Amino acid sequence: MVNVLFVCLGNICRSPMAEAIMRHKVKEAGLENEIQVDSAGTGDWHVGHIPHEGTRELLDRHEISYEGIQARQLASTDFERFDYMVVMDDSNWSNVTKLPGAKENSLIKFMNLLPEHELKEVPDPYYTGNFDQVYELMEAGCDVLLNRIRKELN
């Protein structure tokens, strides 16, 4: 089983969007028994909350389920559970690497999945309001990550 964790600041916009999109792609590929996906935030402000309204509206528009997704805070034990920890920006990277047990070899900056893109960090739609832009990035990056994992599974 390959375990993937998406990480952002509050776990209500970017990382739950990535989790939902990746779960959808994994299901479409028939790999639910081989790949598990989760998300977390480095902060605790939204623990227990469902994804942000902007994230939910976008996922609804694309008929992607976010059922069961609730914000949670990243824990040191996540380094033992997850093969991939995909962070959305440099601030997330810094926060994650400060945790006890941090393993940088399991960390990926999301935008490193899309090296041809001009952006180096995933913008936070909580502040920008541009959920569509983030959705497009998540779609493309999750495709790249899923292909990478599929190669490992073969």
From TrEMBL:
Keyword Hydrolase: yes
Keywords from the UniProt entry: Hydrolase, Protein phosphatase
Keyword 4Fe-4S: no
Pfam families membership: LMWPc
Domain of life: Bacteria
Family: Belongs to the low molecular weight phosphotyrosine protein phosphatase family.
This protein's name: protein-tyrosine-phosphatase
Phylogenetic lineage: Bacteria, Bacillati, Bacillota, Bacilli, Bacillales
